[in-house]
Design goal:
This protein is mainly alpha-helical and 97 residues long. Helix content is 56%, strand content 8%. It is built from four helices and two strands; from the N terminus they run ααβαβα. Helix 3 links the parallel strand 1 and strand 2. Helix 2 packs parallel to helix 3. The longest helix has 25 residues. The mean pLDDT is 87.
Length: 97
């Protein structure tokens, strides 16, 4: 669209505002992670590495929450955007080809 660029989509948020917006979703994600680990008969200390990918994994609150949830684990960062794009490409291929 003419006249609509990144500057039109920009806004400023404090950390507290961002936490207020996404905090509930983050807690649901980590709650489910805890359930999956428990269903596998494991504890957080049994997890050797946690792989983070996707744009939201770049958010400090996600990294910090991951480190708190799995303090003995290595936190491995994937290509935040390419891995998600690759998965979408594979999904599209299975649907449209």
């Amino acid at each position: 669209m003419p006249g609509v660029g990144q500057e039109a989509l920009a806004c400023s948020l404090t950390d507290d505002q961002l936490q207020g917006i996404v905090g509930g979703a983050v807690e649901k994600i980590f709650g489910r992670m805890g359930e999956v680990v428990a269903e596998a008969g494991l504890g957080a200390g049994d997890i050797g590495a946690v792989f983070l990918t996707g744009g939201s994994s770049l958010m400090p609150m996600i990294r910090q929450r991951t480190q708190r949830a799995f303090p003995a684990s290595e936190i491995v960062h994937g290509d935040a955007f390419a891995s998600v794009g690759l998965r979408l490409t594979l999904a599209a291929r299975s649907v449209f080809v």
